[in-house]
Amino acid sequence: MIQNKFGEMIFSESDVCDLIRQGRDLESLSGMLVDNSVNLDQISCHVENYNHTLQPAKLLIDTVSVAEFDSAQQSQWHMPAQYKNLDIAEHVLLLCKSEAELQRCGQELLLYQERDLFPLLQYLVYLVDVMQTNNIIWGVGRGSCVASYVLYKLGVHKIDSLYYDLAVEEFLR
Question: How far apart are the first and last CA of the chain?
Fold first, then answer.
């Protein structure tokens, strides 16, 4: 397995076979990028009932700039449909327990919306749920993200920016 300049993992035929033999959920292999040299129709590890499509890595990837790649990828968040379809503004506002919390979250949600970051917030809800479900421990919070009360309400970090009077502008500069 190698990583290209965009951070995508490119798998070899051997990598794919190893993942299948290790019991990897076949559905999770669908859509993974595979080295162009692999003949996808004749993978040699032959797994019964394997009918998912693996995608060869793009030959034109070196002709695309990192900015163009990022822009294209930001529209393709890999998460279950229930998170993609989540009304993130309603979800966040339902987490609020006081008028001050509603005011701060409303202000921040407008800033997130202006920057077209709702898909990121949806993904963070998914990520936090996965980490909690699997008992994965993550940090208390660091850097400027702790200035976001919305991220606090979603469980991304444990720093109450209202309590510490942190301005959201510190995060969204």
Answer: 36
C-alpha triplet 130, 136, 140: angle, nearest 5°: 105
Assess whether pLDDT exceeds 50 at residue 70: yes
Report pLDDT digits (tens) over 103-137. Answer: 999 999 999 999 989 999 999 999 999 999 999 99
CA atoms within 13 A on the CB side of 21: 10
Rg (CA), the chain: 20
Tell me the C-alpha distance between 16 and 170, whole Å: 43
Handedness of CA 163, 166, 169, 172 (dihedral sign): negative
pTM (two decimals):
0.61
Q: Where are the domains of the chain?
A: 2-73, 81-170
